[in-house]
Design goal:
- The structure holds two protein chains of two kinds.
- By secondary structure, chain A is mostly beta strands.
- Chain A has one domain (16-111).
- Chain A has no helices and 13 strands.
- Chain A has strands at 16-18, 23-30, 34-36, 39-46, 49-52, 57-69, 72-74, 77-85, 90-92, 95-96, 99-102, 107-109, 112-113.
- In chain A, strands 1, 2, 3, 4, 5, 6, 7, 8, 9, 10, 11, 12 and 13 form a 13-stranded parallel β-sheet that branches.
- The radius of gyration of chain A is 13 Å and the shape is globular.
- Chain B is an alpha/beta fold.
- Chain B folds into two domains: 8-105, no CATH class; 117-174, no CATH class.
- In chain B, strands 1, 2, 3, 4, 5, 6, 7, 8, 9, 10, 11, 12 and 13 form a 13-stranded parallel β-sheet that branches.
- In chain B, helix 1 crosses helix 3.
- The longest helix of chain B is centred in the C-terminal third of the chain and has 18 residues, at 117-134.
- The radius of gyration of chain B is 25 Å and the shape is globular.
- The relative contact order of chain B is 0.08.
- The chains are: A mainly beta, B alpha/beta.
- The A-B interface holds A 1-3, 14-32, 34, 38, 42 and B 3, 5-24, 26, 29-30, 34.
- Strand 2 of chain A pairs antiparallel with strand 2 of chain B.
Chain lengths: 124, 175
């Protein structure tokens, strides 16, 4: 059924996969890559990469090192390294990250703030 | 068995705090707190910790579970498994080496459960008295003591026969 995550999955051993029928209502946190094919509501805090697959839906604030979105995200994204919005993704919310990539075909509404790398968030 | 594609895996460093619902197998190597509701199998691996109310179809516990587990089919605690909480499932397997503290409820067990009481009365206890008078075997045994006084006799001897009948039933169950 799945098999879509192959390009995104194995970074530092993406062992955690939230499958397509799974709904999590609450907080998810951890120190490893996380692949989301299902639904997460609440809050996601990671020190590694977050990969939201095409079937994935996130209604949560996200704090991670890297984010790749192919699915849907509603909520603010704060990444210490990079945010990548792939084609066919839908993102509503503010993005704060030193590097932000928005691919052709991505749907995005919200603020972008790349001014975070050296200076801590203190306005603009 | 563990990490097949399409199933969900919670990695070792992951903590989920909240409600988790789903229709697929879930393997926990990290921590899950809150509630877990699945229509399939929950596998808690040795590195996994689940502090939650769990409702699943099958549950295999090789890690730590704190909380009540309700399964529609089975719960198995493997030799590495540790659990504190109550289990409600028709099939419960606890293997040698597993540690468990809590209650086990396998549902209707026909040893005088309240719901089964009406049927239970009609089968083992009252009929035992009935058969003491009516059944040919019982009558045959009582023949040596006397046929006619068997009916008006006080209920002292029939219990002995009743116990004999129960013993026979137990033997049948062992087979």
């Amino acid at each position: 059924m799945a098999g879509i995550e192959k390009p995104a999955a194995p970074r530092s051993g993406a062992q955690t996969v939230i499958g397509s029928t799974i709904v999590i209502d609450g907080e998810v946190s951890g120190d490893e890559d996380l692949v989301i094919e299902g639904t997460v509501k609440g809050k996601v805090t990671l020190r590694q990469g977050l990969y939201v697959e095409g079937s994935g839906v996130i209604e949560a604030d996200i704090e991670t090192a890297r984010v790749e979105v192919s699915g849907q995200v509603t909520g603010n994204i704060a990444a210490t390294e990079k945010v990548e919005l792939k084609a066919d993704c839908r993102v509503v919310g503010d993005i704060r990250s030193p590097r932000i990539l928005i691919a052709d075909g991505a749907v995005f509404r919200g603020n972008v703030d790349m001014d975070v790398g050296a200076r801590a968030p203190k306005g603009k | 068995m563990a990490s097949a594609s399409g199933s969900t895996v919670i990695g070792e460093s992951i903590l989920i705090n909240g409600n988790l619902n789903g229709d697929e197998d879930l393997t926990v190597r990290g921590r899950v707190e809150g509630t877990v509701t699945l229509s399939k199998t929950l596998v808690v691996e040795p590195s996994g910790t689940v502090k939650a109310e769990v409702q699943v179809r099958n549950c295999i516990i090789a890690g730590a579970v704190i909380g009540n587990v309700t399964a529609t089919e089975s719960v198995e605690i493997t030799k590495e498994g540790r659990m504190v909480g109550d289990i409600a499932a028709p099939r419960v397997i606890i293997v040698d080496g597993a540690s468990f503290k809590g209650r086990v409820d396998m549902g209707e067990v026909d040893v005088g459960a309240d719901r089964v009481a009406p049927r239970a009365l009609s089968r083992p206890s009252r009929p035992a008295l009935g058969t003491a008078r009516a059944a040919p075997r019982a009558a045959a045994k009582e023949e040596g003591e006397g046929e006619a006084p068997a009916a008006p006799r006080p209920p002292a001897p029939p219990p002995a026969l009743g116990m004999g009948a129960v013993k026979r039933k137990v033997v049948v169950r062992r087979k």
